[in-house]
Each structure stands twice: as structure tokens, then as C-alpha cells.
Amino acid sequence: MRTEKLVVIGQGYVGLPLAMRAVETGMDVVGLDVDADRVKRLAAGESFVEDIPAERLGRALAGGRYRPSTDYADARDFDVCVITVPTPLRDGAPDLSYVEHAGRSIGPYVRPGCTVVLESTTYPGTTEELLRPLLESASGLRSPGDFHLGYSPERIDPGNPTWRLENTPKVVSGVDEQALHRVDDFYRRLVERTVPVDSTRVAELTKLIENTFRQVNIALINELAVVSHHLGIDVWQAIDAADSKPFGFMPFRPGPGVGGHCLPIDPCYLSWQVKRTLGRRFRFIELADDVNHQMPEHVAHRVMTGLNRLGRPINGARLLLLGLAYKRNTGDMRDSPAVDVVRHLRALGAEIRAVEPYAQPEQLPAGVLVVDLTEREVTEADAVVVVTDHDCFDYDLVARHARYVFDSRDRCRGPVVERL
After folding, report:
1. 262 labelled catalytic
2. CA proximity to 75, closest of 32, 41, 23, 18
3. pTM value > 0.85
4. Catalytic residue, candidates 262, 268, 392, 412
């Protein structure tokens, strides 16, 4: 009996876990990526995604069921194709060039009865209005009718040991009932529970709702943190106290800004489409985006004023930043607010050293010296700034030996520590 063939376009934080899970359920998987260096590393058994240990990747390669490639010809005769490419913003507008490239490239290999699923986050209508015409034009086939097309928003949370691909409910959709059935059947083999919805537009909006909810609530807490500081109130204690309410409240924590693909970008897709199609502004999203984008500058200003109180100007000061990735316990640098924190601090004349044990060196901001977290580095710094709170950091060492700590993540305790 022929083994089902899956093609996953994009082998990053979304595509690689999907490919590994499919291999483990018995599928033959081709992982396509335009980055030749990434493909070479994957073929050598080197994983750059923390959620996929090298041992797990090695087993998939050794079993012969996983083949990373840059050649779309390797997609020939696929049964299912999942597109997991980036969808960044360019000058405030969605950049769907990666989706377009994927659609045009896989289109010639679309055959009757196959299934294509888009997972990339985007605005409602993308699957049917953008991707479908590309696939139909390149293949000469039609959907619905000849092949099946659907959308299933990714819900990958890098570094989360509890909620993984397998046990996170998967929203699924199709352009018609038969496509929905095919998409649902595919994901049921990978995850514990699927959540079918009526249309691809509903599924596309679902992802934007999830991320807009977080963006708006984080912005609310970030603005509360700024205001509470001026009012002399401990916002962290207030949040913990509010969290004691067993209903009607969900805690969010302040920080130096938002990062990753989701929060800085995805809500803007919705506000962009609302303005384009309805001619009106989505003011909640715009305000939340503005608040969160100001946080890195706020952190830099707080560090400067903290040093001023100690009689040390920030110009020429030696600062030790803890963490540069956007998220705890990962090396994901996508739109990390730490990059903007570094930029603002350097503009004020500070010398920046950083401890970042997860991110690849080539992804780190220019002009930053990466060092280990040692007693000497802490004592020689004019200030230590906690930007990303990796669990591997020795916060007790920092609190004991630092002259001054600005903690944007509420991880340090001690008389020299000032919190966001």
C-alpha cells in the first residue's frame, strides 16, 4: 500500500514541528524551504528549533521518511501540501509574497484529489481570493471540484512544554464540505482534537482574534505599568492580587514590548483589511500597537533615570542585558523588542553587552558583545537589564553582585532591583 506523501512548505518554527509529527504518524514528508543553508543543516540533523531536539530530527532522517529540500520537483505526486511560510508587514501593509511564491511553485504539482492547506497567518479572504487563483492557474485544475483547499491557523507556541502541536486544538476549514472533510481527516491524525468551522474566512479571522486579544490586553497592562510607576504603585502586586479573582479576569504581565511573528504583526493584518475594505479604522488595534511599540523606548528611559539617581550618566555606561530573544527559553529573534531596547540604549551612548544562550549569533543585533553570565560581568556592569527572562539565568547572582538592576520581567529581588 502506498504511503501518504505530505509536503510542508517552510521549515521554521511552524513547519518543522508539523513535518516531524507527520513522520511519526507514518507519512512520507518533504520539507521545502527556500533557505539552502537551513535545508543543509536539517539534512545534517541540526535542528534550530528548540521544540525539535536533534535526536527527534535524526530519527526522522534515519527512518527515511523526512527529506528536506529546496527543489519543488520533490513535491511531485503529493497527497497533502501545507504552506507555513512567513507573512510579514512591509510599510504597514501585509506582504504575502512568500505565500504567492509558494502557491506559484507548488501549483504545477497540484493533481486531482490532492489537498492544499494554508497555515500562514493572514487576513480573511487570502485562501480563496489569493492562493486559490494561483493554484488553479498553475495546475489547470479547479477547487472545489478537482482538488481540495483549506485553511488551518497555526497555534505553535515556541518553548511551551505543556501545549504542543499534538495536544493543542486545531481549527480547520475548507472551501466546501468535501475540502473541510479532507482537511479535518488530515489533522485528526496529527492532533488530539480538531475544531471545524464553516469557512476559510472564519478560520483566518480566528487566528487574528486570538492574537489581537493578547495584543490589546498586553498593551493595557503595559500602559498601566507606565502609569503605576509615576503613581508610586507596584503594578506587579496589583496584578497578582487581581488574579485571585476566580472569574472574569485573566492575568497579563507587562514587559519591554511584544515580539515574534504574531503580536507585532498579525493584528495589523486585521486593521489593514478593515481600513481597505470598510474605510474605517480599527482603533483598538492601532492604539494597542502604538502602546506596545513605545515600551522599548520606555525601558531605555527608565534605565537612564535609574543610572542618573546613582550619579552615573548613561553615556559611556556599561550595560549588561539579560536575554535578547522575544520569548523566554527560546532563541526566536523575530521582531524581538530587545532589538529596539538595544537601539535606544546605544543611541543614548551606552556600551552594550548581552547574555543570550539560545539565539544564533548571526541573528543578534550589531554592535552587541555576547558574553556569559558571570560574577565578573555583573560586577563590572553599571547596570544589568533583564529583557528576556530565560529560566537558566542565575537571578540570585545578579541581585547579589549588581550595582543596579532594571527588571522588565519581574524575576529579580533585592535592594538594587527596580522593576518595570
Report:
1. yes
2. 32
3. yes
4. 262
